[in-house]
Amino acid sequence: MSSAMPLRMESAPARDIRDRLIIGLDLPSVEEARAAVDRIGDAGTFYKIGYQLAYAGGFEFARELIAEGKKVFLDLKLHDIGNTVEEGVRSIARLGATFLTVHAYPQTMRAAVAGKAGSSLKILAVTVLTSYEEQDLADAGYAPGMTAADLVTRRAEQARDLGIDGIVCASPEAERVRAIVGSDRLIVTPGIRPAGSEAGDQKRILTPADAIRLGADHLVVARPIIKAADPRAAAEAIVREISGATR
């Protein structure tokens, strides 16, 4: 990958702050993902690989990023019978990724915790997808009147009790989740949109600064960076906003 000029940051430590931004490589090919990482340069230290890229050579690309000193979040949202999840997580742990997502069902979470034993991999439980709202829950058969916030609360409590390392939740729910899981577990929030960005298919969103102030540890941002005319500048702007919110 090409070298890049150092990130121009006034707050310190820059590396710690940059790690709080996870850039979603929601792209159809490794070639496009590699080009995006090159354009972002040193402004990005942590990358998310989801379904689209993972099944298009993304696992080998994850190894490439890790070898170059980047952190990788595999957003695979595993959910299956316990043994399958446990063995799958055990294999993924050998890859060297930093984060892996599973759906926040008790059996799945319990199996994932067992599968990552002895490794540095951190398991994140996905509570309710950020594209969901109350009607989506009703359509899926959840109890009448159950809100997304209700379901997030219940799953966060279960994740805490099962020893999950962190929670993925919509940014408006970060404060509620922090009160449940305490300070020793991570909160990762997708659906982040800088001021002026389009919401797209996300329904429960906040700006980077607001999410940090509500208790998020890491923010996942994809389209506002990788689709920007200058992805490096877009990433730098979000890092500056994160830095300002932590003062």
Write the layout of secondary structure elements.
Elements: H1 14-19, E1 21-24, H2 30-40, E2 46-49, H3 51-67, E3 71-78, H4 82-93, E4 99-103, H5 106-115, E5 122-126, H6 134-139, H7 148-161, E6 166-168, H8 174-181, E7 186-189, H9 208-213, E8 218-221, H10 223-226, H11 231-245
Parallel strand pairs: 1-2, 1-8, 2-3, 3-4, 4-5, 5-6, 6-7, 7-8
Helix pairs in contact: 4-5, 7-8
Short summary:
Homodimer. The chain is α/β, with parallel strands linked by helices and 247 residues long. It is 44% helix and 15% strand.
Task: Provide the descriptors you would attach to this structure in a database record.
single chain, 247 residues, alpha/beta, TIM Barrel, 11 helices, globular
